[in-house]
From TrEMBL:
Transmembrane segments: none annotated. Residues 154-219 form the S1 motif domain. SMART domains: S1. Belongs to the CvfB family. InterPro entries: CvfB_fam (IPR014464), CvfB_S1_2nd (IPR048588), CvfB_S1_3rd (IPR048587), CvfB_S1_st (IPR039566), CvfB_WH (IPR040764), NA-bd_OB-fold (IPR012340), S1_domain (IPR003029), WH-like_DNA-bd_sf (IPR036388). It comes from Paenibacillus rigui. GO terms for molecular function: nucleic acid binding. This is RNA-binding protein. It comes from the Bacteria. Coiled coil: none annotated.
Length: 297
């Protein structure tokens, strides 16, 4: 059986060749353990445990250092560099970085990871047998996660995006000391902005589902959210000529979402609050800032 990158092997130290390092063998194939990848004594004739990878010259090489990921495993790796042609490079704890190619990333550039983000990936081989990262899916992550307890409802937790879509964002919520984490989803209507792959975000758990996954929101609870939404609407009105805007209870929901990034029900709640406080009034399909409110600017 030929040696494969991404796995641990016990190989015999066949010879030392200065200034390169040690050549190891399984009796059929030799690989180089460079001096920089050796840990402790490496006596010729003895066996050493090594992890195989491809070096910067695409040669199969060995290391005695512990990688952050192994073949077929899921790990959370940090983005350390981005190449405009190939993709992003991840820290894997060895002498070279691991490529996450663009084909494994979202098509929209704004949804792709940035340096400092951390991505859930699986270590795999490309067609030439070299190590490559593939984005982990829910199928890969779910067995590692635990079911969210009912007590998580309405709590605020941090999560890491593993699948950003237009219709919603999927993430793994931090499990802390309990375990790996919990699968969560933020519907597009509960998102205040687009989220990129590998981004960390703080969310509130709105609903714990029967399958143990959770629905999340980036929005504040209704009372706090209503105040924030009302302030946003007031700010728009105060910037408009004559303190009027062509948005009201009659405006379609998609237009409201596009202009204010809130649902129509949230818009109506905020408008109702402003009307009760005597700050605005509606006339036809327009909302107007009352004169007293304009004078408060």
């Amino acid at each position: 059986m030929s040696l494969e990158a991404g796995k641990w092997y016990d190989l015999e130290v066949a010879r030392e060749v200065s200034p390169h390092g040690y050549f190891l063998t399984d009796g059929v194939q030799d690989v180089l353990l460079h001096y920089s990848e050796a840990v402790g004594d490496v006596p010729v004739g003895e066996e050493v445990e090594v992890f195989l990878f491809y070096d910067s010259e695409d040669r199969l090489a060995a290391t005695m250092r512990e990688p952050l990921i192994q073949l077929g495993q899921v790990a959370l790796l940090e983005v350390v560099d981005i190449h405009r042609r190939f993709g992003c490079f991840l820290e894997m704890g060895l002498g070279r970085h691991l490529l996450l190619p663009f084909r494994e990333q979202p098509e929209l550039p704004e949804l792709r990871p940035q340096v400092g983000d951390k991505v859930f990936v699986i270590l795999a081989h490309d067609r030439q047998g070299r190590l490559i990262a593939k984005t982990a899916s829910e199928h890969d992550l779910k067995p590692l996660c635990f079911d969210a307890p009912a007590s998580w409802k309405n709590t605020t937790v941090k999560g890491r995006v593993y699948k950003p879509l237009q219709m919603g964002t999927f993430l793994v919520l931090d499990g802390g000391v309990i375990g790996f984490g919990v699968i969560g989803m933020i519907h597009s209507s509960e998102r205040t902005r687009l989220l990129r792959l590998g981004e960390e975000v703080e969310v509130r758990v709105g609903y714990v589902r029967e399958d143990g996954n959770v629905n999340c929101t980036m929005r504040a609870p209704k009372e706090a959210g209503r105040d924030e939404d009302a302030e946003r609407i007031l700010a728009v009105l105060r910037e408009r000529p004559n303190g009027a805007m062509p948005y009201s209870d009659e405006t379609p929901a998609d237009v409201i979402m596009q202009r204010f990034q809130i649902s129509k029900s949230a818009f109506k709640r905020a408008i109702g609050k402003l009307m009760r406080e005597g700050l605005v009034y509606q006339q036809g399909s327009w909302t107007h800032l009352k004169q007293e409110a304009q004078q408060e600017q």
